[in-house]
Design brief:
Two copies of one chain form a homodimer.
Chain A: H1 6-13, H2 17-24, H3 33-46, H4 52-59, E1 64-68, H5 83-98, E2 102-105, H6 114-120, E3 125-129, H7 134-142, E4 147-150, E5 160-164, H8 166-179, E6 185-190, H9 197-211, E7 221-224, H10 228-241, E8 247-250, H11 253-265, E9 275-280, E10 294-296, H12 299-314, E11 324-327, E12 330-332
Parallel strand pairs in A: 1-2, 1-3, 3-4, 4-5, 5-11, 6-7, 6-8, 8-9, 9-10
Antiparallel strand pairs in A: 10-12
The structure holds a DNA duplex.
DNA sequence: TTGTACGCGTTATCAC
DNA sequence: GTGATAACGCGTACAA
């Protein structure tokens, strides 16, 4: 059983293919209402659905949206095991679908480029999470594909940016620890890179420290990667070499989990001996034992909003809105931070 | 700057579009080697990439693979926040890309069907995780789209199945607890449905119980949904109403997390007071505190293998292999099970 | 090697 | 106002 084409419908209806097309698109100015009804009935009966490829060719729009997320170094896999990304994708996909778009989820092979993929698949737009080398962005500008950037501080009006105030978040987390009486506060974090969110969170950390007139000690900054493993390594270091540290701000929840884990393994109690605050509030954070105190952002909604704005750009709506959108941030107090005695 | 088409290349090369097409596809029998070289050079220079939509139309293959995963009840979102699915997708996507396929990630709106989507997008194949109403599968058979089923016991040779021996896994987990001296063993689980994995794990549980000549007590089976929340609810019940239960087999790691959490909240110690074993070994399980003892399957690899077999079906390789593939299972001992004193 | 028809749907043009 | 005809978008594959 092969799928019906527009011609099949036309034949059955005794009209031209063009008429069917008009009926499909509701062009009442081209076909009378009653024939539209009749054609629609036949479309139902045959269960005819227009082919996206054909449409993509003629209308030059694929109804396909790409999504770019970081990959493992080998370039082999998307890092979806990081719940932060998968929760976001969940939000993106739902919203796209609501508007009749579909999501193409693909990484990039060694030596190939996402830009080529976008061109070949005729992507109507793309959402990028994280930051990439500058030239990466340029290509999209040249061929004029609408792009929404999530969690990036790339300053270019071509792109729409969705994010949070990471500096403030970093400040909030650190200030919270300070208010609880801590003064020697470690920072466990992924790579601090220009235009990235981590840099801003780091800046917020420093601001809070300075504002409290504490000494900013670079030795207390444990920077490497946004991973559980790095959290573990840093936690171990802290337990062994920096017993004066009584609180830790981890710039991502996964990192916080790792830190807590190795701290506990080293015989430290969280939060009794050492407090830990995370960032993001991934789903897992409330399930963790002890439940993680963290800076919360609504990840799924962030994705949905990014999708919504991308569609707006594509459909060229009014969209003279700001091209940077900041989502709110809250602190959620759970069980990993305690007042210093 | 608009993208070059095959005609642009042809014009520059001073040949016909057909020649370019042949050059692209390496048809040395149709075009001389030297012109192929020359054309390829020009393709490089212009950075020409063939359009997937056009190809899809004429070759009737989209190089697009669909993936079906369960959705929230509102039909609004994919449940990607369940790491089990996202890890699997990671494995699937990587393998597909290796073979030149891309992944279309989409849920289904209320009142629409995945089958229609598959037809409209001309999907070359699809991977389905979990189980669905029977009619769901029939459509794909009719239009002859290759399908790989992950974690399903649907018995139909049209489909290729990738899974594990869930009955054995359930047996293994339960037997492990029994060997540790436990006899009152609770089962906390998602819905037990025909042809689903949970049913088999449940059967394995019963087999181990009976084999040990223990009494199978239906009251010890806490069945609802494969969620953290249900784990919590069940853990609470156990702590309050079934103090004689000294060990729990949770048929999914997320459920185990929930159970442990509420057990701990009720003042029980894991594993001192009560042991818990999970199933799947999602990434999070080794990060959990205490690290979860669980039945391990290689989730990412499972996805990769499913992708590989799907491609095999599509490309019609030799593939007279078995059409059911069972991946190995191991038990990983961490810190949530203890010998009963 | 090349011209050309084709796959499917859209839209501008033309006829009644 | 209703409708049909035909050209087009891009790449492929057959006949010439």
């Amino acid at each position: 059983m092969k799928k019906p084409t527009i011609k099949d419908v036309a034949k059955v209806a005794g009209v031209s293919a063009a008429a069917v097309s008009y009926a499909l698109n509701g062009r009442t100015d081209k076909v009378s209402n009653e024939t539209i009804e009749r054609i629609k009935g036949i479309i139902e009966t045959l269960n005819y659905k227009p082919d996206f490829s054909a449409r993509s060719l003629v209308k030059n729009q694929s109804k396909l949206i790409g999504i770019v997320i970081p990959q493992t170094e080998s370039h082999k896999q998307l890092i979806l095991e990081n719940p932060f990304y998968s929760e976001m994708i969940s939000g993106i996909e739902g919203k796209l679908r609501e508007y009749g778009y579909h999501l193409l989820l693909s990484g990039v092979n060694q030596g190939e480029s996402y830009l080529d993929l976008s061109i070949q698949r005729n992507l109507d737009g793309a959402i990028m999470m994280g930051i990439y080398p500058e030239q990466f962005y340029d290509g999209f500008k040249k061929i004029n594909i609408p792009i929404v950037l999530i969690d990036s501080y790339i300053n270019d009006n071509y792109f729409k940016r969705i994010g949070i105030d990471d500096e403030y978040g970093g400040y909030l987390a650190t200030k919270y620890l300070i208010d609880k009486g801590h003064s020697n506060i470690g920072l466990v974090t992924g790579a601090i890179r220009k235009d990235g969110v981590v840099e801003k969170r780091f800046l917020g950390y420093k601001r809070a420290i300075r504002e409290a007139n504490f000494f900013y000690n670079p030795d207390y900054v444990f920077e490497e990667s946004m991973s559980y493993e790095h959290g573990m390594a840093a936690g171990q270091l802290i337990a062994k070499k920096f017993p004066e540290i009584t609180a830790v701000f981890a710039t991502g929840d996964m990192v916080a989990f790792g830190a807590i884990r190795s701290l506990v393994d080293q015989g430290k109690k969280v939060p009794e001996d050492i407090s830990v605050i995370g960032f993001d509030d991934i789903t897992m954070s409330k399930m963790f034992i002890p439940p993680l105190t963290t800076i919360r952002q609504n990840i799924t909604e962030k994705g949905a909003i990014a999708a919504e704005h991308l569609i707006n750009m594509i459909q060229g709506g009014v969209e003279q809105e700001a091209n940077e959108i900041m989502l709110p941030l809250t602190i959620v107090e759970r069980a990993t931070v305690k007042v210093k005695e």
